[in-house]
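Summary of Year 1 activities. Much of the first year was spent building the evaluation harness for sequence design. The harness presents a backbone, in tokenized form, and records the residue chosen at every position. We chose the following record to illustrate the format because it has been used consistently in internal testing since the harness was completed.
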């Protein structure tokens, strides 16, 4: 295979509500370390690396743009283009936007489109499957990848093969049809039939082939998406798609828009292990040992087929005599559920949203381009935060109408500007920022800087910020 023929396109949106409380709208599951030392997003990007791959292209939203670049940098991966969606419009417009961008920059490329939140234990086998699909993709086929089912799963769509998969070797086969998520009876029948695969939502095709498919099967998407890309604005290395044009694109999946209507389809079976980690039951299957899925400071006594996760190093989670239970503890929320009801977690999140419960969507750590912060204590007129600033990073030059702040440095050194005075504050030193003062905090060091912030005032909301200068171009 020629070098650098494939451009990975990572779809990096969504909220993963079935994995609440770990996955939330403000920090969804792809950025979490669910099964290893890297996040799912980092593992996905690393899996699509090698001499045949270009730098990964990412489609994400504005809230995640700095998380994406930070996690790729931490993994030692140089990103390619990063396209920012003004709003989520499902996978068809996202894939089309990537194809339009590539048509201008690398029209001969193959696109490997994949979600960024899947688990593939054997990356080498995955790359071999991709390589097996390359000739078909170069020959004008829309190649999808189907997973050999291991159980009668009702949470996935299926692919019916038009021919016997045999030993499920990685080679292109003919596709008969797409099957929607089935009930338990139909899922069992498909598993027994032997010619059905799980639909992994992973695709390989040439730029020209997929643009032709959209032109034929979803022509209404072409004009708004092309305009969104053509009118997009460069912003700190990102391409912000034009919001007015993007709003005119239909919200539709690539399966409905193109794949279920196309005739030039091939499927490459993949039998080396895969999970979309769509709910806590699937996480348990990936992590269980002797019937227990344990993560963090947990203690299990006489438990069976049970997932115990504590996401706080200071919170010990103890399970006694549990069977088929999921228990996940976060600093601000705890989930306890019957394993069989794992798919219903999204319904609980909907109820929490209706009640306007902050934990439904907001993660306890608020990630920013300069680092992150978390609230430790909140009172009527005060709040205590822990703030971590990356090396070389700086918060915006800002002021507040309603609060004053005390900063105590506990790790590293802070460069602090208050009105016209600039000073260095070291560990165990503190500084006071009066209400209304124009101020900025920077980390001039080579290690993360940690400080404790005590806010006092009549209103402590994050919208009480007047920005005068910001290296990240936030408003």
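For this record, the design step produced the sequence shown next.
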């Amino acid at each position: 295979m020629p070098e650098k023929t494939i451009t990975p396109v990572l779809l990096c949106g969504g909220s993963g509500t079935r994995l609440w409380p770990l996955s939330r709208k403000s920090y969804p599951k792809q950025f979490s370390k669910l099964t290893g030392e890297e996040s799912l997003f980092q593992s996905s990007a690393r899996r699509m690396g090698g001499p045949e791959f270009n730098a990964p292209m990412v489609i994400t939203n504005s809230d995640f743009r700095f998380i994406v670049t930070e996690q790729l940098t931490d993994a030692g991966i140089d990103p390619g283009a990063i396209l920012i969606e003004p709003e989520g419009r499902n996978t068809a417009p996202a894939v089309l936007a990537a194809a339009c961008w590539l048509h201008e920059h690398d029209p001969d490329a193959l696109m490997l489109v994949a979600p960024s939140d899947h688990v593939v234990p054997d990356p080498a086998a995955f790359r071999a499957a991709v390589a097996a699909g390359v000739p078909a993709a170069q020959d004008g086929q829309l190649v999808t990848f189907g997973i050999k089912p291991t159980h009668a799963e009702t949470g996935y769509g299926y692919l019916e093969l038009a021919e016997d998969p045999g030993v499920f070797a990685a080679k292109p086969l003919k596709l008969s049809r797409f099957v929607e998520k089935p009930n338990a009876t139909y899922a069992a029948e498909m598993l027994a039939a032997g010619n059905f695969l799980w639909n992994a939502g992973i695709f390989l095709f040439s730029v020209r082939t997929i643009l032709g498919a959209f032109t034929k099967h979803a022509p209404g998407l072409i004009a708004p998406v092309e305009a969104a890309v053509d009118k997009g604005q460069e912003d700190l290395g990102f391409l912000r798609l034009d919001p007015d044009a993007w709003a005119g694109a239909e919200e539709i999946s690539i399966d409905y828009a193109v794949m279920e209507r196309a005739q030039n389809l091939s499927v490459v079976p993949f039998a080396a292990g895969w999970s979309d980690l769509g709910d806590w039951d699937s996480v348990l299957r990936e992590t269980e040992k002797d019937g227990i899925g344990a993560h963090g400071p947990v203690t299990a006594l006489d438990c069976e087929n049970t997932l115990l996760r504590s996401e706080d190093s200071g919170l010990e989670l103890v399970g006694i005599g549990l069977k088929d239970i999921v228990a996940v503890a976060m600093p601000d929320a705890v989930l306890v559920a019957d394993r069989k009801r794992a798919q219903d977690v999204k319904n609980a999140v909907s109820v929490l949203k209706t009640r306007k419960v902050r934990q439904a969507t907001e993660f306890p750590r608020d990630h920013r381009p300069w680092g992150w912060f978390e609230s430790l204590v909140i009172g009527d007129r005060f709040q205590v935060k822990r703030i971590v600033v990356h090396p070389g990073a700086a918060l915006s030059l800002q002021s507040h109408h309603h609060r004053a702040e005390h900063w105590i440095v506990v790790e590293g050194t802070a460069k602090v500007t208050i009105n016209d005075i600039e000073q260095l504050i070291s560990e165990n030193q503190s500084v006071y920022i009066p209400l209304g003062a124009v101020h900025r905090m920077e980390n001039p060091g080579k290690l993360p800087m940690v400080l404790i912030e005590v806010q006092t005032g009549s209103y402590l909301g994050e919208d009480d910020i007047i920005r005068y200068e910001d290296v990240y171009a936030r408003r």
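The two ends are 46 Å apart (CA to CA). Quantitative recovery figures across the full test set are reported in Table 2.
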